[in-house]
TrEMBL record:
It is a multi-pass membrane protein. It comes from Nocardioides iriomotensis. InterPro entries: Cyt_c_assembly (IPR002541), Cyt_c_biogenesis_CcsA (IPR017562), Cyt_c_biogenesis_CcsA/CcmC (IPR045062). GO terms for molecular function: heme binding. One of its GO terms (biological process) is cytochrome complex assembly. Residues 51-70 are annotated as: Disordered. This is C-type cytochrome biogenesis protein CcsB. The gene is ccsB. The chain crosses the membrane at residues 6-27, 82-103, 115-134, 141-163, 175-203, 235-255, 270-289, 296-318. Keywords: Cytochrome c-type biogenesis, Membrane, Transmembrane, Transmembrane helix. The lineage of its organism: Bacteria, Bacillati, Actinomycetota, Actinomycetes, Propionibacteriales. Signal peptide: none annotated.
């Protein structure tokens, strides 16, 4: 295959990944929509008048009441499994698109040389993080917001950020590019999944306080608030040291290699540091001051907002005034 073939394959893989993400989203919507009917487990007991009259032992049906909605719950679970399987397929296609994007450049390179490619890599990190942690922490309930996130991000990337595959600019010819961006992608994936958990915590907490939590609805069937809070904290605690390495170690080393200085007070460098400070404040407050629940979730989302601004906003608001303008 030629580089043009690989580039075309990448574009098609992104398209098909987007379609499969949409199908996974629809499957999860169906899962939660049909699951609303399973609110309270109904139990039927088979009465045996003769046994009752003579004081006989209860039948097996009486001793072990059977839920009447077992078949319904199986159908709900089936839709959830379909959504998860489709998400696995979509992430594989997403990864293939990322790899062939690099193979589609001449010369062959890592696939993160501009904003379009950074967006592909970052959103792939979110999907991969969800799948890797999903089995350990039983995160299938997060499939709905994760697939929605992937659909929106890939759509915006294709419509607003797409550029043809091409060679790297001189500043990117360094193996520190691989280390710096790979670490940032992993950390950003953890922060994004943690932010989703924080958003769900706030929404469920607000619905509970207002008395609008529908029995059997999506929010009602999410994990308890304490579990959402702990999950968000663990994800941020996992991502923070990786972000520290990416932003404050690998990034400055790469800057010295590319521009002759470890720190240039470039807008992207400054906002990477601001992101680090906010997440450090979140983890410190959560671990030492006992800030849990709503306050901690708000700080976590402020940190994710600074991450998004560093990722996208710098290029739109500062443009050519940034040493990182090649990422636009």
């Amino acid at each position: 295959m030629t580089t043009a073939d690989f580039a075309a394959f990448s574009n098609n893989a992104v398209m098909f990944a987007s379609i499969v993400y949409v199908l996974a989203f629809v499957a999860h919507v169906t899962e939660w929509a049909t699951g609303r009917a399973v609110t309270v487990t109904e139990v039927t007991e088979v009465a045996e008048p003769e046994a009752a009259l003579v004081g006989g032992s209860p039948s097996p049906a009486q001793a072990a009441p059977r839920p009447v909605d077992e078949d319904h719950e199986e159908r709900v679970d089936k839709w959830g499994r379909i959504g998860l399987a489709l998400t696995v397929v979509a992430v594989l296609l997403h990864g293939a698109a990322l790899v062939t994007r690099g193979l589609g450049a001449d010369p062959i390179r890592v696939p993160w040389g501009n904003m379009y490619e950074f967006t592909l890599a970052g959103s792939f990190g979110v999907g991969l993080m969800y799948l890797l942690l999903g089995r350990r922490y039983h995160l299938r309930w997060m499939g709905l917001p994760v697939t929605a996130f992937e659909v929106v991000v890939l759509m915006l990337a294709g419509l607003l950020l797409y550029v043809p595959a091409g060679p790297l600019v001189p500043a990117l010819h360094s193996y520190w590019l691989v280390i710096h961006v790979a670490a940032a992608v992993v950390a950003s994936g953890a922060f994004a999944v943690g932010a989703i958990a924080a958003v769900l915590f706030l929404v469920k907490d607000r619905a509970g306080r207002r008395g609008s939590l529908r029995p059997g609805g999506y929010l009602d069937r999410l994990p308890e608030l304490n579990a959402l809070d702990r999950l968000s904290y663990r994800l941020h605690a996992f991502g923070f040291p990786i972000w520290t390495f990416a932003a404050l170690v690998a990034g400055p080393i790469w800057a010295e290699y590319a521009w002759g200085r470890y720190w240039n007070w470039d807008p992207k460098e400054v906002w990477a540091f601001i992101t680090w400070v906010v997440y450090a404040a979140y983890l410190h407050a959560r671990a030492t001051a006992g800030w849990r629940g709503k306050a901690a979730a708000v700080i976590a989302l402020v940190g994710f907002a600074t991450l998004l601004f560093n990722f996208v906003g710098i290029n739109f608001f500062f443009g050519g005034g940034s040493l990182h303008s090649y990422a636009g």
